[in-house]
Amino acid sequence: MSDRIVTRFAPSPTGFLHIGGARTALFNWLYARRTGGTMLLRIEDTDRERSTEPAIEAILDGLRWLGLDWDGDVVFQYARAARHREAAESLLASGRAYRCFATPQELEEMRDTARREGRAPRYDGRWRDRDPAEAPAGVKPVIRLRARQEGETAVEDGVQGRVTWQNKDLDDLVLLRSDGNPTYMLAVVVDDHDMAITDVIRGDDHLTNAARQTQIYDAFGWSAPRFAHIPLIHGPDGAKLSKRHGALGIEAYRDLGYLPAALRNYLVRLGWSHGDQEIFSDEEMVAAFDLGSVGRSAARFDFAKLENLNGHYMRAASDEELVDRIEGLLPVLGPSRGLGTTFPAVVRARLLVAMPGLKERAKTLVDLLDSAYYLWAPGPLALDAKAASLVDDAARDRLAALRPRLDAVAWEPAAIEAAVRGFADEVGAKLGQVAQPLRASLTGRATSPGLFDVMVVLGRDESLARIDAQAGRPVIAASQPVA
Ligand code: GLU
User: Fold this and answer.
1) Which residue has the CA at smallest separation from atom 6 of ligand 1?
2) Which of 57, 271, 386, 430 could be a cystine partner for 299, CB 3.0 to 4.6 Å?
3) Does ligand 1 come within 6 angstroms of the Cβ of 188?
4) What percent of the chain has pLDDT over 90?
5) Could you tell me which CATH class the domain 6-71+232-305 is placed in?
6) 225 lines ligand 1 (CB under 6 A)
7) Among 47-51, 172-176, 266-270, where is mean pLDDT lowest?
8) Is the CB of 11 under 6 A from ligand 1?
9) Catalytic site residue 243?
10) How many CA atoms, within 13 angstroms, populate the side-chain half-sphere of residue 282?
């Protein structure tokens, strides 16, 4: 085995890239990058019925979106079926495998007997030493591993420590099906060997498979890679992760408005820790990651924590990046919000100016988009219930009286603020009694980024038109829909 680390991510394209798979990919990627090694990508598409092209695309897109690049070309497992067959034949030739002619009915009986006796179903080895000349007519054989029956199989796992199995508990597993197709167990071993994988890092649901695979490596006379089985991700209640608790495809996280950097940071902390550090740049993650600090118990998924991290990364992101990312979500989010799939230039310009204030409060890109609603909303602006309750008759009168002052003032935040404050003083109102209805009229919401900044972003004409619409005066400069 060479010194250079070679890891792999080996998803089955029977579904999209889910959050657990994404974390497995991230750990493989980090481990490879950390050691100056490589990470390969193998699509395990041997299950022809359940593997789909859209799932393959979703996995590749998901990895790209998450920023996890792989080395070399993608390996497709099914394309290697001839090699898997040849490998199984070589074990037949060396006596480490045999043809088994047990009929489906016999196998069914074995399972029934085991069930009745309260045992785990096992193949009883009936063709291990039987002469194939005795094969019943018309039964297509499978090829089974001639597994060792005495002693134990041990795996020195990078996360779980040393784990052992009694060989008497492991039956002779099928390597090649009667239709000539390899089983997962055979294909994984042959591929990992041929791809010179040094480290297999995957979910601990594969731990028992590591024992099976170790037996197959042994039969070939190949040395097994190092294994590291990482605990699965559970929901906040400790139960298996459900959809409601985050068991979603990675594209769902994109559409919910999370930044890939935030998700990377969140995922690295799911099951791995480095002192009490929570925020990691990619460089810091790569420098600090090690398998020894991966815990042995299941990690718990916590949306609130992901949101907080996302807020952090959004505040740190440039305004341009945020506008671009929101725009990237418009094909999904735009139509239900009266927007197209791209931002009109005027909205884009307003968004860029408003972004420093907007990103202070938002937790996701979707929040950000919704909080920017007032920037493109067509007139007259629809107020939400809270905002509408702020615009009563007294407020309308104040807005009408304030309007001429705003028409005359220099259009920049300090001057507007001075005018609003001066007006409130003069009419004996608190600042809030003027500012709140003003905010409601301009943004349709009861909360917003700094009011005077909002007014500058909207411009004088648009601001006055929105005030007019609420103050009940004839609308002088009706605002035009911009989206
Ligand atoms: N294809 C398997 C899966 O998606 C992973 C196999 C492996 O990592 O060895 O669960």
Assistant:
1) 10
2) 271
3) yes
4) 84
5) alpha beta
6) no
7) 47-51
8) yes
9) yes
10) 11
* 120-130 mean pLDDT: 91
Q: What is the pLDDT of residue 474?
A: 44
For CATH 1.10.10.350, the residue range(s) in the chain are: 385-469
Given a cut of 70, is residue 473 above it in pLDDT? no
pLDDT single digits (tens) 278-331: 999 999 999 999 999 999 989 999 999 999 999 999 999 999 999 999 999 999
Q: 350-354 contacts: CB < 8 A, separation 24 or more? A: 350/375, 350/376, 350/457, 350/458, 351/323, 351/326, 351/375, 352/319, 352/320, 352/323, 353/453, 353/456, 353/457, 354/449, 354/453, 354/454, 354/457
CB 205 within 8 A of CB 12: no
Boundaries of CATH 3.40.50.620 in the chain? 6-71+232-305, 78-230
Q: Does residue 475 surpass a pLDDT of 80?
A: no
* pLDDT computed for residue 2 by the predictor: 53
Tokens of 459: 């411009």
For the CA of 213, the closest atom of ligand 1 is 9
Both tokens assigned to 33:
């990058």
C-alpha angle 189-194-200 in degrees, rounded to nearest 5: 50
Long-range contacts of 181-186 (CB under 8 A, 24+ apart): 181/46, 181/81, 182/46, 182/81, 182/84, 182/85, 182/88, 184/44, 184/46, 184/47, 185/209, 185/212, 185/213, 185/216, 186/84, 186/87, 186/88, 186/216
Average pLDDT, the chain: 93
Tokens of 440: 């409601």
Q: How confident is the model at residue 446 (pLDDT cuts 50, 70, 90)?
A: very high
Q: Which fold has domain 78-230?
A: Rossmann fold (3.40.50)
Alpha carbons 125 and 140: distance in angstroms, whole number: 17
Signed CA dihedral, 339, 342, 347, 351: sign only: positive
- Domain 385-469: give its CATH code: 1.10.10.350
Task: Decide: 41 and 66 in contact? Cβ < 8 Å.
Answer: no
Enclosing H/E stretch for 45? none
| pLDDT at res. 101 | 97
Q: CA 430 to CA 423: how far, in whole Å? A: 10
